[in-house]
Amino acid sequence: MAAKQAAALVLAAVTVGGASSAVAVDGRPARPPNVIVILADDLGYGDLSSYGSTIIRTPNIDALAADGVRFTEGYVTHPVCAPSRAGILTGRYQTRFGYEFNPVGRDRTGGVSLAETFVGQVMKQAGYRTAMVGKWHLGMADGYHPMDRGFDEFFGMTAGASSYMLDLQPGDEAYTPPGSEASERASARDPLPADATPAQRMAYTRRMSPIERGKQKVEVKDYLTDAFTDEAVRFIGANKDRPFFLYLAYNAPHTPLQAPKKYVDRYRHVPDKGKRVYAAMVSALDDGVGEIRAKLKAEGLERDTLIVFLSDNGCAAYVLGACSNAPLSGYKGTHLEGGVRVPFIVSWPGTVPSGRTDDRMVSSLDIVPTAAALAGATLPKGSDGVNLLPYLAGGDRGVPNPTLYWRAGPNYAIRDGRWKMWSVNKAPPGAEATGSAEITPDGTHATVSPYGQHVMLYDLKTDLGEHRNRAPREPKVVADLQAKLKAWDAGNVAPQWTSMRQSVKKQDGHLLQMYD
Fold first, then answer.
1. Averaged over 7-15, what is the pLDDT?
2. Which of 66, 94, 204, 278: CA 20 to 30 A from 477?
3. DSSP letter, residue 107
4. Are 245 and 377 spatial neighbours (Cβ–Cβ below 8 Å)?
């Protein structure tokens, strides 16, 4: 596509909402805008000061929100890492193509179906230079690697987690939640002895989850969050003269919780070690956002770049209070609001009105259609998201996503207007609500429990914390939502593999079985 044609399409897409930044000062058609997607990993809804944190200070992310739109009802398509990322990068519910559960080792032999089109491919075909920096978690084998899914450049890890550091220097800190180390070693089939030093464990974890540039392993000694920021800044500088798409997927603040002295020093006043290290990790992430914006400004690209910031899911219960999803209930791994509602910020100075707080429902599914519209690209068939540009610029006052859906094996959830319904398998009698996930053998796909399912219905306008189950009093609402779920589910396929990581949680007086 010629640059002039692409610019015209961008102008048409943006002016739907009444904005017009696609024309340069001298009257010549501007190039299509850059797009940067910044994804945090397991960041809680309440872990940013702009979303209510009283512990963690995030001035750079707060400034991003002040220069754009801060959504209070932004959602992802799954409450755990890999399936959520599959939805983000395809713009389709991952249940449409079977990437329903975390791969738990299967990403070494496969990944997201090769029939699916990734946003990197969409943007590359539109003439953009594309890069992926950080955590992939969607396939390691040939054909499934980021470089095979539309990204010209890759610097990061294909696995789901890695050490941030290779040793602890004076003032650095690492935090392992009490009781979690043994289960972590078992889950990873860790051969190291229980008395292994922190340096030995960090080196082993990095060896099992190495950092790559392209498809070649590289040694990275810097704090991993800083290394990913540096790579993103380098990419921006190297591509300042052409449109680019950057997917910066930090692994922070996902476990292992590790932070260097320069970030920990900001929170020495916090007595709880877990909260202190976690806050330091989020600070490193926040600094990264600041450095990226500073680079855009220095290169004169600030008004030519749309930035989307969000998390892949809510924060995890297994860090034992180090994070916060307040005022929401639930955590990563559940379809309560704390598992699937995340910080969601969109900024484009000069085009998207600044300083807005928006309570309309948006979804991570919307990123691909929005980026494609900006690029003047053809959107792949079957997209489940919507182009947010008309809503961002103010031309469309409707709700981008009136209804959103979730599935994890036999468990389903739906958000429809004010109503949220969650249907979950009942756990066997005597099961313990440990709150932690255990590896289970591969086998037959989960089905509806012989003990039945528990249905929960919440009115989120009056009960944001999901405390009062209205299902017994609202049978018609339940029936209507079940009919919508059934119609939506008709477009899904069977999972590619069995859920191998399951847990039990007590909710609304019942022990319930989670699948991720």
1. 45
2. 94
3. G
4. no
498: DSSP letter: -
Amino acid making up residue 328:
L
Percent of the chain with pLDDT over 70: 90
Q: What is the mean pLDDT of the chain?
A: 90
Per-residue pLDDT of 316-342, as tens digits, reads: 999 999 999 999 999 999 999 999 999
Point out the residues that are catalytic: 81, 137
Q: What is the pLDDT of residue 15?
A: 42
- Residue 283 burial (CB count, 10 A): 25
3-state SS string for 460-481: CCCCCCCCCCCHHHCHHHHHHH
Nearby residues of 268 by Cβ (< 8 Å), 6 or more positions away: 276
The residues with which 253 forms a beta bridge, in sequence order, are none
- DSSP letters for 13-46: HHHTTT--TTB-TTSSBPPPPEEEEEEESS--TT
DSSP 8-state secondary structure symbol assigned to residue 445 = P
- In this prediction, residue 179 carries a pLDDT of 60
CA distance 288 to 436: 31
Q: What integer is the mean pLDDT of 188-193?
A: 70
- Which of 68, 122, 117 lies closest to 245 in space, CA to CA? 122
**Number of neighbours of residue 179 by Cβ within 10 angstroms:** 11
CB 273 within 8 A of CB 320: no
Give the containing element (helix H, strand E) for 405.
strand 403-408
Q: Output the CATH code of domain 404-515.
A: 3.30.1120.10
- Identity of residue 368: V
3-class secondary structure for 156-172? EECCCCCCCCCCCCCCC
**Structure-token pair, residue 240:** 């300042």
* CATH superfamily, with its number, for domain 3-401: Alkaline Phosphatase, subunit A (3.40.720.10)
CA pair distance 345, 305, nearest whole angstrom: 14
pLDDT in tens, 200-250: 889 988 998 999 999 999 999 999 999 999 999 999 999 999 999 999 999
Percentage of residues in the chain with pLDDT exceeding 90?
78
Alpha-carbon gap, residue 94 to 47, rounded angstroms: 26
* DSSP-assigned beta bridge partners for residue 512: 426, 505
Q: Where in the chain is the domain with CATH 3.30.1120.10?
A: 404-515
Contact 325, 315 (CB under 8 A): yes
